[in-house]
Amino acid sequence: MSATLSNNAPRILATPTAGEIAGEKTMLLAFWVTGFLALAVGIAIGVLQSSNYAGINLYPYLQPFLKSYYQGLTMHGVLNAYVFTFFTISGWLMYLPARELKLKPNMGLAWFTYALMLIGTLMAAYGMFDNSSSVLYTMYAPLKGSAWFYLGITLVVVASILPLFVVLEMRARWKRANPGQLTPLVTYMSATTLLMWLLAALGAGTEAVFLLDPWALGMTQTIDPLLARTLFWWTGHPIVYFWLMPGYVSIYALLPRQAGGKLISDPLARLAFLLLFVFSLPVGTHHQYTDPGISPVIKGIVTALTLSVAIPSLITAFTIALSLEYGGRRRGGKGLMGWWTALPWKDPSVAAQVLALVSFIFGGAGGIVNASWQLDNVVHNTLWIPAHFHLTVGTMTTLVFMGVSFWLLPHLTGRKLYSSKLALWSVWLWFLGLMTWGFAGHWAGMDGVPRRAWVSSLPHDQYMQLYGAVHPALIIVGIGGVIAALGAVLYYIVFFGTLFGQKDSKAMVEIPFTEYITSSEGSLLARVAEPLGLWTLITFVITLAVYIPVFWPMLTHPIHAPGFVLW
Ligand code: HAS
Ligand code: CU
Fold first, then answer.
1. Under a CB-based contact definition with an 8 Å cutoff, are residues 350 and 403 in contact?
2. Rounded to whole angstroms, how far apart are CA atoms 252 and 313?
3. 299: Cβ below 6 Å to ligand 1?
């Protein structure tokens, strides 16, 4: 009898010692510094891309380092969209749950993740720098890259899955000690994000291991471009939520407190994450509305499913706007919008995240246009699409992480933020630069300016003949890029100024975990959302139901295309 009782009774878990926490901080710092270094290189190359559209061809001055616009574009996309995000997100999603649960993560696995990701990054970087792999970040076969590149990317993707096991193990340990209790919110969000990513990565993982790697190693001579693209987009859509959801962790679980308030509802946050998980997997083919070989019936179904993916972000918009309003009113804001001006705008971390949210209103609205099959035909493969993703991953994700770094770096290093003022300038310039870019890019896209085109290499009169009518928009694209780059310069002054700055005992700020107005206690919604294994299975079944009819004709009518190295 007593044995049964002691089995069910809550167990006391060993909390990590100060030395162990210091080790975890070093681990997270390694992930963030590596990620932000990659971003610095990516941003520098970004200025070349935006100048290209303004008609300024800087590539001739960069020989022999960058051979072509397409090499630059590949590096810009891979470093920013994969390397920066995967490093920062992997560290972030292991460290925060560890602090929330007050448990020690499996540090061996955490460091192994880092090492594998670094090796993969170096291999892929080699393949890009030697100009053997200018295949763009979407790796569209039959454009052919080197084995260094594909194998490197494969390792990076494999590494990015490992944090899931670190988080699930901590969650299981915590659940054994707290039987019947709901997973605390940050851990719930992290586990959901990483489970979503596990299923998402199956597409690109299969593409890499069965198509791209053997092809680049010379084991196969041809490739099926349609199959490769479809596998890529299996991952390529949900990857955008792998970029978004870790930012949402801060927006839901930390920002309300930083803004002086509380999160309105914990169960609604869980619902948003669960819906992002379930809805984002089956809709990858909305990137292929113009591809042949996919049934129009599927394209219609995917349009409807994609529109539903906006629902969790709309839930987020209302929940967070209300949480911010609550914070602003507690800080003395009066009247209809007084709460808005009463937000702590002088705090660069808050300013960055709120500005990121503002940009995401436009990024999200553009996404809803893309989601609609008919409207997408107008904007697909135009500059509209990069404009859309510079307001989502370029601003929403990146600016939130910049904002987080303003408290996280002092938290990790015990050093003072180098300059709050410079930090504020950097986030405003980044926001204004990318909003300018975004506005002009959408405009130029609607006028039919193609994306991924080395337009500045055309003779001037030909460039003007083709794009003269939309030249003002393209010049604004270039100006937006420069403003954002100035913001980045200030940002990195703050970043390195903090890393190498003064030690200050007060700098070691605590993680601003928020309180809730409505907690998940007694919430049916939170209970239904809790069994993550079941939700993973449900999502997988729905995804297969949508994808089996997509893949079937491709597998029964394979295409065999030889590879091309164009640039
Ligand atoms: Fe997207 C293409 C559809 C969101 C990234 N997307 C891309 C590409 C990237 C990307 C990188 O359906 C290009 C890929 C390539 O290279 O070809 N996208 C959507 C939809 C959403 C969406 C429906 N995208 C994102 C996010 C991304 C991202 C997030 C990165 C992080 N996207 C598409 C489609 C395409 C596409 C098609 C293919 C197009 C083509 O032709 O190739 C939705 O998830 C968006 C929902 C978002 C909202 C906004 C909610 C607003 C919030 C802010 C509230 C503000 C507050 C502040 C609280 C509905 C949460 C208070 C303010 C006050 C004023 C009170
Ligand atoms: Cu998508």
1. yes
2. 12
3. no
Q: Is 389 a catalytic residue?
A: yes
- Its pTM stands at 0.96
DSSP one-letter string for 224-290:
-HHHHHHHHHHHHTHHHHHHHHHHHHHHHHTHHHHTTS-EEEHHHHHHHHHHHHHHHGGGGGGGGTT
241 is catalytic: yes
pLDDT digits (tens, 9 = 90+) for 512-536: 999 999 999 999 999 999 999 999 9
How far is ligand 2, taken at its centre, from the CA of residue 467, in Å? 28
192 Cβ inside 6 Å of ligand 1: no
Tens of pLDDT along 309-336?
999 999 999 999 999 999 999 999 999 9
CA of 248, nearest ligand number: 1
Nearest ligand to the CA atom of 311: 1
For 306, the 3-state DSSP assignment is helix
Mutate to test the pocket of ligand 1, among 389, 391, 435 (most ligand atoms within 8 A of CB): 389
Instruction: Reply yes or no on whether 452 is catalytic.
Output: yes
| Three-state secondary structure string covering 166-179 | HHHHHHHHHHHHCC
CB 201 within 8 A of CB 235: yes
Domain 17-560 of CATH type 1.20.210.10: yes
